[in-house]
Design brief:
Layout lengths: L6 H18 L15 E6 L4 H14 L5 E6 L1 H14 L5 E4 L2 H9 L7 H6 L1 H5 L3 H4 L3 E2 L2 E2 L2 E2 L4 E8 H7 L7 H13 L3 E4 L6 H15 L1 H8 L9 H15 L16 H7 L3 E7 L2 H8 L1 H5 L3 E4 L14 E4 L3 E4 L5 H13 L4 H9 L10 H5 L4 H12 L4 E3 L1 H4 L2 H15 L5 H12 L1
Parallel strand pairs: 1-2, 1-3, 8-9, 11-13
Antiparallel strand pairs: 3-12, 4-5, 6-12, 7-9, 7-10, 7-11
């Protein structure tokens, strides 16, 4: 499996850049969006799925010399600034890669993104091959403003099978079982859970899953809709209390608040036997496989879904994380550009070659009917698990700091960090978030 830069790490800052654009948006037409020689201009990020994008463009341009696409690639931070400036001035690309959620909605609200719903409805084969739960991240008021272009990245619970065998345990299916495991591992001198708490965003995965398991997707739907007092919903308060319970019980490795997520230290604690479990996005598989190929090849790495909560309203099959990266189309593109862009998205993305290239890169695309390809590929147990987990999920919740408006997302990370550090109570956390939400 190829190492990838996790989309998750880049989300909040990218969303902030998108939202800042809105204040600069004018009413003028699009000044320039064509690629070289009048080709359809597409903007995308380097690394990650870049190899797949490049191969796709080459294949498409050979087969469609009259409808060529010109993909330009940017590193993450320069991309944010360039996209903000271009869209604000009304001269951005025809298609642009994004993360969906609150950042994209800022563009949509400013009238800068084209509604793809009519085109999708005209081509049921195109629309129906994509997991419905993934399309929700770019669907606002019943209209679709972006289609996925790479793989799904759900958050799962990884565990060290050797350590579980050592204490005679199974991965937890319920919250109570997780708490019992905390005691069992601590008694053997093993950290129950590792986490890169210094980065703050890994904290969020615990809140997202607990709120969903306790109250179901509608709790966050009310938060995202700006419903007054939504952060004080009983499910949010109970989730915050359960987080405090886990921290107070010594559930996390000592010093977890000083571990940075993107260094791979939290994953290393699992494969070196210092911690039994870690909750992280699917990109962590690559981190572990790179850090200790033998640990993975010998079958010592296990994975499981987030535990259920007794009496909770949420479906234990729901997942959180990053449904995908998306491609959205400028509302200011010319009719000719829009026609060419839609043609490429419909027939050039997620075709057989494109899907094969994603799979070779270790990505699991949200496309129906891939069981045979996954079983024949590398790390088939893992990729098939991820595929079925996301395919069968009724709800795939985009990470909250990406789904919310950027400023509120930053406030959330700040106050949640304080909760994990024991600096504020669960009740204060809810009060502060209600205040931040206005």
């Amino acid at each position: 499996m190829a190492t990838r830069i996790p989309i998750r790490v880049m989300g909040t800052a990218a969303a902030a850049a998108l939202a800042l654009t809105v204040s600069a948006c004018g009413s003028g037409g699009r000044a320039a969006g064509g690629g070289s020689g009048g080709d359809t201009l597409v903007w995308a990020l380097t690394q990650g799925s870049e190899a797949t994008f490049r191969a796709s463009a080459t294949e498409w341009n050979k087969a469609h010399p009259d409808r060529k696409i010109d993909i330009q690639y940017f590193q993450n931070d320069p991309y944010k600034q360039k996209l903000r400036t271009a869209v604000g001035a009304g001269n951005g690309p025809v298609l642009f890669e994004n993360w969906g959620g609150g950042g994209l909605k800022s563009y949509v609200d400013a009238g800068k993104v084209a509604d793809l719903t009519p085109e999708l409805n005209k081509s049921p084969q195109w629309k129906n091959r994509i997991f419905p739960s993934v399309l929700k991240s770019t669907t606002f008021d019943g209209k679709v403003y972006g289609v996925p272009v790479n793989g799904v990245q759900p958050v799962v619970l990884y565990y060290n099978k050797q350590l579980f065998e050592k204490v005679g345990a199974q991965p937890p299916k319920t919250w109570d079982e997780l708490l019992a495991l905390v005691k069992k591992f601590k008694a053997r001198g093993i950290a129950p859970l590792s986490m890169g708490g210094a980065s703050k965003w890994p904290d969020l995965m615990w809140l997202e899953y607990l709120v969903d398991r306790i109250g179901g997707p509608e709790v966050f739907a009310n938060i995202a809709a700006g419903k007054k007092g939504a952060w004080s919903d009983p499910a949010v308060l109970e989730a915050a209390r359960m987080i405090k319970q886990l921290v107070d019980a010594g559930g996390f490795a000592k010093g977890f608040t000083s571990v940075t997520a993107d260094t791979g230290q939290a994953e290393a604690q699992v494969y070196t036997g210092k911690a039994a479990m870690t909750l992280q996005g699917s990109w962590a598989f690559s981190t572990i496989a790179t850090g200790s190929p033998k640990f993975v090849s010998e079958g010592h790495l296990g994975w499981s879904s987030f535990p259920a909560v007794a009496g909770g309203k949420g479906d234990a099959g729901d997942v959180v994380g990053n449904p995908a990266n998306f491609s959205s189309m400028s509302a200011q593109a010319s009719p000719k550009e829009k026609k060419a862009a839609v043609s490429y998205l419909k027939d050039g993305v997620y075709n057989d070659t494109y899907v094969d290239n994603l799979l070779k890169n270790g990505d699991v695309p949200p496309v129906k009917g891939l069981d045979a390809e996954l079983k024949a590929g590398d790390n088939a147990d893992w990729t098939t698990y991820v595929y079925h987990l996301t395919r069968d999920a009724e709800n795939f919740q985009l990470s909250w700091d990406q789904a919310l408006a950027p400023e509120l997302g930053n406030d959330l990370l700040t106050h949640l960090d304080q909760l994990f550090l024991g600096q504020i109570s669960p009740e204060t956390f809810c009060e502060q978030m209600d205040k931040a939400a206005g």
